[in-house]
From TrEMBL, chains A, B:
UniProt-annotated stretches for the region Disordered: 283-303
Organism of this sequence: Nocardiopsis tropica
PANTHER family: BIFUNCTIONAL UDP-N-ACETYLGLUCOSAMINE 2-EPIMERASE_N-ACETYLMANNOSAMINE KINASE (PTHR18964:SF149), ROK (REPRESSOR, ORF, KINASE) FAMILY (PTHR18964)
SUPFAM superfamilies linked: Actin-like ATPase domain, Winged helix' DNA-binding domain
Record's protein name: ROK family transcriptional regulator
Family designation: Belongs to the ROK (NagC/XylR) family.
Compositionally biased residues, Gly residues: 283-302
Length: 432, 432
């Protein structure tokens, strides 16, 4: 019989119950039955297990609404903690969150992680220890460390090729004595915005992240959309000109090659007056020039990262340099078109602009993106897409990295139901 | 506490079990436990209910593998049926499928559905009756009728504005005496390919559908990805030129405006020699010219639909008309870039080209799309994306429409878990 050997994906009842309790704050067993659709028996069993694990506690009774008062449940905030680490050329941000994703403590080190992986791992492990001890949290309550970057936690910078074979996660795990969950900074940024409660009711939500490159993290009902290989949301390679300049990805006219931070900096450097006014450094080796043989745009050289150079161009525009302003407005037009494509393909209802690039240049990019979406969607009588600047651009990826640990250690999505070959059995004739 | 009031989405255990049995063909209860991760008790309960409903039957025993032989289960193919109707300007296709989505009978009427909604509904109802009776299927075993088109089942052609307020689904329901499930033809095409077993193991699969317009249907693990408002996969409005021609959607440089079938026909008409050679009709009123005031490209006039005119251009190219060939190759370049964007954003692992437009012109579009994806993904060392021409372009949407009925009537996705405001209760101090 036809059809691929796979059933519908689904999560555990434990996951659903824990998530509803987190979202509600306090809720009764009856409330959980109504919210999840599970039977009272299932809810009782799941809640009992969560209480036994110390994750949930009974916290009081709902004011009687006629019937007998109902016992309320809530997460035991301090039952578990997680650390999130965001490796970014602009610096490394650490966040310690409780079971609810609320930030207990955080710190940023203006340090791209250096160029020596072993040293970076040692430094990171020391910082994690300091963060946990400083907050007075019992170490055995820390579930693990989420490690995110533009390269999925593997390297602070895409251009650090010599890191490619260095097992950062494994080494950090050894150094910290804690499980390490690696991830993508754009997806972590989306999770951070979501768990921080900043996005409210939304079904399909994307965080557009502009750091050295451009990416997007996508959540569907709060669950990261990963795609077939964990590379979903690659809007940096949305094509905006079939005859455009070659991109390192092998294609032409990608938004990153046309208008990403590295492209803006490249154009600014090409303008002697602007380069001087913005105090840009000379183009360096490594990933800085974003050419076809290069990794994702920038930051590979010693000295200022591409993101820092981009910030310098933004400052020049703020000071009134017309060429700097024009470069950013052109970049914003292109990014707006790429974002419209993302909104069309994924059918988003909310978009948050984040990452260091958009944190410094949001005043230019936000209006361009809003007007692009309003024009297109109004005419099609489609629903509006809300666009916001992140209120926590600097810390959202680190918070999201911590929530990745909470999700993976407490409420793992049940592995997609697969049908092993050996389960498809050949029938012997039925007894007559 | 932060976080939106919503838990993770999940489907019923009945859905998962039914889908695993469908995919396996035959499987034992032990196999179901292993495949779904549910307990033996849950499986027994669910299977019992499915047998009582007559959907599943015990079919024999697995050859003994040491232990005692296990009873095998399979869907009762003939227990339920569904009808799928695909309204397309090229004609209306009807398919009757059994419980497994296998086609029992199908027919195509070369008839765009006419211009009178009431007459179309009456004609469709008569055809559904004839199909069911002709196949000797008991009517009370037919679950319903899936009705799909470029406008979500509402109208055969986007340009039929006077249909906008005609309740096609409700009227057809009345005329047939069967529930009608309306849907989008691109999503139905993807479901049809999936249930027909043509796509095999795939996690994120898209069917790119080119009819009068361009769209994509996306399945994640076999479940349609709808987005926030059911409009996901709108690749017709992927921007490929920020300074491009205005699109009816309100934006500029959309692939549909640059290179969709209507744009190709428009360009062909502008070339007197080619228009003659391809025997194109003059541009008509209504949706034919795809201008900004118009609905999705084409087909609004009496006489040949835009899709038929596009087919005429394709035939001219086959006969060696260089200008026709050039127009199609240019269109293919643009569509390839849009498809690369779709593959990047959704992280696809399989793509099937379907719909009347790609069925007639696949020999031009397939190589262009393949080379575009190979170039881009190879350089990024990402996984390859397999691209195929549909083997059942003509019937996939109708089959998918029928499977929409099977899905919605037998294994409805449990509504997304929401947390009504009134479930979030205020805590009274816990008794000490």
């Amino acid at each position: 019989m036809g059809g691929p050997s796979r059933a519908t994906p689904h999560t555990t009842s434990r996951a659903a119950v824990l998530d509803v309790i987190r979202a509600a704050g306090t809720i009764s067993r009856a409330g959980l039955v109504a919210a999840t659709g599970f039977t009272g028996a299932t809810i009782s069993t799941v809640v009992r297990a969560l209480i036994d694990d110390g994750l949930v506690r009974e916290t009081g009774r709902a004011e009687s609404t006629g019937g007998k008062p109902r016992v309320l449940l809530q997460l035991d905030h301090g039952a578990r903690y997680a650390v999130g680490v965001h490796l970014d050329p602009m610096g490394v941000t650490y966040a310690l969150t409780d079971l609810t994703g609320a930030v207990v403590s955080r710190v940023t080190r203006a340090d791209a992680g250096g160029d020596d992986p072993a040293a970076m791992v040692a430094r990171t492990a020391r910082q994690v220890d300091a963060l946990v001890e400083g907050a007075g949290v019992e170490r055995d309550r820390v579930l693990g460390v989420g490690l995110v970057s533009a390269t999925g936690g593997a390297r602070p910078l895409p251009s650090m090729r010599h890191w490619a074979h260095f097992p950062v996660a494994e080494e950090l795990e050894r150094a910290c004595g804690l499980p390490v969950v690696p991830g993508n900074d754009a997806t972590a940024a989306a999770l951070g915005e979501y768990w921080s409660g900043g996005v409210g009711e939304t079904s399909v939500f994307a965080a557009v992240y502009m750091g050295t490159g451009i990416g997007a993290g996508i959540l569907v009902d709060g669950i990261p959309y990963h795609g077939a290989s964990g590379n979903a949301g690659e809007i940096g390679h949305v094509c905006l000109d079939v005859d455009g300049p070659p991109c390192w990805c092998g294609a032409r006219g990608c938004v990153e090659a046309l208008a990403g931070p590295a492209a803006v900096v490249r154009a600014a450097r090409a303008d002697a007056g602007l380069a001087r006014a913005a105090e840009l450094g000379a183009a360096g080796a490594g990933g800085a020039d974003g050419g076809p043989t290069d990794g994702p745009g920038g930051g590979g050289r010693a000295g200022r990262s591409e993101a820092a150079e981009f910030a310098a161009v933004v400052r020049a525009a703020r000071r009134g340099e017309p060429t700097a302003r024009a470069l950013l407005e052109r970049s914003a037009r292109y990014l707006a078109a790429a974002v419209r494509t993302l909104a069309n393909v994924m059918d988003l209802d909310l978009l948050v602009l984040t990452g260091p690039g958009l944190a410094v240049a949001g005043s230019v990019y936000l209006p361009a993106i809003r007007s692009e979406l309003e024009g297109a969607f109004f005419a099609r009588a489609s629903h509006p897409v809300e666009v916001r600047l992140s209120a926590s651009a600097a810390t959202a990826p680190a918070i999201g990295a911590a929530t990745m640990v909470l999700q993976s250690r407490l409420v793992p999505l049940r592995p997609r139901v697969r049908l092993p070959e050996d389960l498809s059995e050949s029938a012997a004739p039925a007894p007559r």
